[in-house]
Amino acid sequence: GPQLNLGVHADHVAVRLGWDTRSDLFGRFEFLCRHGGLASRLVGCIEAERMKIRVYASARWPQGSRLTFETETDVPGSFDEVQRRGVWWEI
């Protein structure tokens, strides 16, 4: 299921809600976004709080992952990128 991560850095704090895209629950989340109206609610929150949706693909060690997609509004496009090569989806 989803994971909530908190990162404390010298100049900022980062909070991420992320999904391992291989999880069965991610498919349900994607369905609700594409067909249940959840995408428009996410975009409203993202725009209000200046957040972004990011998709990562796996990469060789030591990098571990690499950003392949970033958007503030294209929720369907983020899921399309997951289907192409993404292994992690986050806000």
Mind explaining what this structure looks like?
It is globular, with a radius of gyration of 13 Å. The chain has one domain. The mean pLDDT is 92. Strands 1-2-5-3-4 form a 5-stranded antiparallel beta sheet, covered by helices on one side. The chain has helices spanning 24-35, 38-49, 75-84, and strands at residues 2-8, 13-20, 53-58, 65-71, 88-90. Helix content is 37%, strand content 34%. The chain is built from 3 helices and 5 strands. Helix 1 crosses helix 2. The two termini are 14 Å apart. It is of the alpha+beta class.
As a percent range, the share of strand residues is: 25-35%
Helix and strand sequence: EEHHEEHE
What is the average per-residue confidence, as pLDDT, rounded to a whole number? 92
- Helix coverage percent: 25-40%
Given the C-alpha coordinates, what overall shape results?
Answer: globular
Main sheet strand line-up: 1-2-5-3-4
Largest pleated sheet: 5 strands, antiparallel
Give the count of structural domains: 1
Number of helices: 3
Low-confidence stretches: none
The assigned structural class equals alpha+beta
If you compute it from the alpha carbons, what radius of gyration comes out, rounded to the nearest whole angstrom?
13 Å
Number of DSSP strand runs: 5
Distance between the termini: 14 Å
What is the gist of this entry?
This protein is α+β, with helices and mostly antiparallel strands. Helix content is 37%, strand content 34%.
